[in-house]
Design a protein that fits this description.
The protein is of the alpha+beta class and about 400 residues long. It has helices at about 5-15, 115, 165-170, 210-220, 235-245, 265-270, 310-325, 370-375, and strands at about 25, 40, 50, 55-60, 75-80, 95-100, 110-115, 130, 140-145, 155, 175-180, 185-190, 195, 205-210, 225-230, 250-255, 275-280, 280-285, 285-295, 300-305, 330-335, 340, 345-355, 360, 380, 390, 395-400. It binds adenosine monophosphate and magnesium ion.
C-alpha cells in the first residue's frame, strides 16, 4: 500500500516530467483569478505626487511655529484654490484651499483640514484669510509621493492569485497586461455503465453523473480549463474511442473503474498501456492510478480517481489541487464531537467550522455522501496511526469554502 505522501510525490513527478512552465500575457482587466507567472513592478510612484489627504488648506508648517494653548491664532491669506486633477502649482505665500487628492503645491508641506479652521465644506475664498490656532506638524494630512510603493518596486510577486485588490493595484500603476501562468487543459472523463447525463430520464439502476461536473468545477476554480466527457459504459473499447477522439490536453483525469470489481473499465483499458494502479492508504480515495499515454499525438499524464463522488473530490484535493493552485488554508481546530478512524489509513472527513471555532463533522465517513459534502466548508485530516479522537482534541482542518 502506498502512503498519501508517496502518491502525492508520484503525481508531482509525473506532472513535472510532462509540463513545461507555460506563461501567457493577458490584459489586466481579464486576469481575475489568474496566477502571476513573474514579479510585476510598478512603473510609477504610488501615489505619483504628494497630495492632500483631506479637504482643507495647504500650508507651510513653519508658519504655525510657536502656536499653542496660550497664544492667539495666526492669520494666513488664501492665495489659491487647488482641485483634484489640477496641475502642480507653487504656494507663493499664505495658504491655498486644497481638495482631497489634489496635488500639494510646491512650497507647502502640510494640510490643515477645513473643519480645523472653520465649518466643514465652507472654504475661505482667495483673498480672504484663515486663522491657524495650533502648531502643525510637517507632513500632516499629506500623502507623500511613493508612500504606497516607489517606482520600480515589486508590486506583486510571482505566484500571487489576482483578485480585486491585486487587479486594482495593477490598474493604479498603469499596468495594462500581466504575465500569468497558462491554464492547463484537463480532459475529465466519467466512466461507468450505471451513469446517466443529468436531465436524462433515470432508468432503474442508473445514477446521474456527478463527477464530470464536480471535477470540472474543481479544476476550473484551481486555474485549469476543464473539458468534460462521459463514457457511460464499462467497455474498454468505448473509453479507448473517447481518448482517441480527444484533442491535445495537458492532463487527463478519469473517475471510476479503478477498484477491485469485475468491470473496472479504466484499469482494464489503461493498465495495458502502462499506467500503474495502486491502493493508497487513504479513506476515501484509496484506489488510484497514474501514468502517461499518448493523446492526440502527445505524451500526456493521466490520473485515475475512484468513482464515488466524495472519493473523486477528495482525490482532487489531496493529489491535484496542490499542484494546480497550491495548498488550501490549514487550521488546527478542536473537534466538536469524537470520531473514529481506521488506524492504518489517513482519513479525510467532511466538516463545518462552527461560530466558536470548533469543527463538527458533516455526515459519516462513507464516500457516497455527496450531499453532506455539499453542506461542508472544511476537510478534517485524521492521520495514519490515529483510531480515535475525543471531542475537544485538535485536528488539522483544510478550509475548502473558496
Ligand atoms: P467505481 O469507482 O467505478 O467502482 O464506482 C464507485 C461508486 O461510485 C459506484 O457506486 C458508482 O456508481 C459511483 N460512481 C462512479 N462514477 C460516478 C459518477 N461520475 N457520478 C456519481 N457516482 C459515480
Ligand atoms: Mg464503475
Amino acid at each position: 500500500m502506498t502512503t498519501v505522501a508517496e502518491h502525492q510525490a508520484a503525481v508531482r513527478a509525473l506532472i513535472a516530467s510532462h509540463w513545461r512552465p507555460m506563461t501567457e500575457q493577458v490584459p489586466t482587466g481579464a486576469a481575475l483569478g489568474r496566477v502571476l507567472a513573474a514579479d510585476v513592478t510598478s512603473p510609477i510612484d504610488l501615489p505619483p505626487f504628494d497630495n492632500s489627504q483631506m479637504d482643507g488648506y495647504a500650508v507651510r508648517a513653519a508658519d504655525s511655529d510657536g502656536l499653542g494653548e496660550a497664544s492667539t491664532g495666526r492669520s494666513l491669506r488664501i492665495t489659491g484654490h487647488i482641485a483634484a486633477g489640477d496641475p502642480i502649482r507653487q504656494l507663493e505665500d499664505g495658504a491655498a484651499a486644497i481638495m482631497t487628492g489634489a496635488p500639494l503645491p510646491l512650497g507647502a508641506d502640510a494640510v490643515v483640514p477645513v473643519e480645523a479652521v472653520g465649518r466643514p465644506g465652507e472654504f475661505a475664498a482667495v483673498g480672504d484669510a484663515i486663522e491657524l490656532r495650533a502648531q502643525i506638524e510637517p507632513g500632516a494630512f499629506v500623502r507623500p509621493r511613493g508612500s504606497d510603493l516607489a517606482a520600480g518596486g515589486v508590486l506583486l510577486t510571482a505566484g500571487t492569485a489576482l483578485g480585486p485588490a491585486q487587479l486594482g493595484a495593477l490598474a493604479a500603476s498603469g499596468v495594462t497586461t500581466v504575465p500569468v501562468r497558462a491554464r492547463p487543459r484537463v480532459l475529465v472523463i466519467s466512466t461507468g455503465a450505471e451513469l446517466a447525463e443529468p436531465g436524462e430520464p433515470l432508468r432503474p439502476g442508473a445514477i446521474y453523473d456527478a463527477n464530470a461536473v464536480s471535477l470540472s468545477a474543481a479544476i476550473t476554480l484551481a486555474g485549469g480549463v476543464a473539458l468534460a466527457t462521459g463514457v457511460y459504459s464499462d467497455d474498454p473499447g468505448h473509453l479507448r474511442m473517447a481518448l482517441e477522439a480527444a484533442g491535445p490536453v495537458e492532463l487527463v483525469v478519469t473517475s471510476g473503474g479503478v477498484s477491485a470489481g469485475a468491470h473496472e473499465v479504466v484499469r482494464d483499458t489503461l493498465a495495458p498501456l502502462g499506467l500503474t494502479f495502486d491502493s493508497v492508504a487513504v479513506q476515501p480515495g484509496g484506489p488510484q492510478g497514474l501514468g502517461a499515454i499518448t493523446v492526440s499525438g502527445f505524451p500526456t499524464p493521466v490520473l485515475c480517481f475512484p468513482g464515488n463522488p466524495v472519493s473523486a473530490l477528495v482525490s482532487f484535493e489531496l493529489f491535484l489541487r496542490p499542484l494546480l493552485r497550491g495548498p488550501r488554508p490549514v487550521l488546527r481546530l478542536p473537534l466538536a464531537a469524537s470520531l473514529d478512524s481506521p488506524v492504518a489509513k489517513h482519513q479525510v472527513r467532511r466538516g463545518r467550522i462552527t461560530a466558536d471555532q470548533t469543527v463538527e463533522l458533516v455526515g459519516g465517513p462513507s464516500s457516497h455522501l455527496l450531499a453532506a459534502y455539499a453542506r461542508s466548508d472544511a476537510l478534517v485530516q485524521v492521520p495514519v496511526g490515529v483510531d480515535h479522537l475525543d471531542a475537544g482534541e485538535s485536528v488539522e482542518v483544510w478550509r475548502i469554502d473558496e
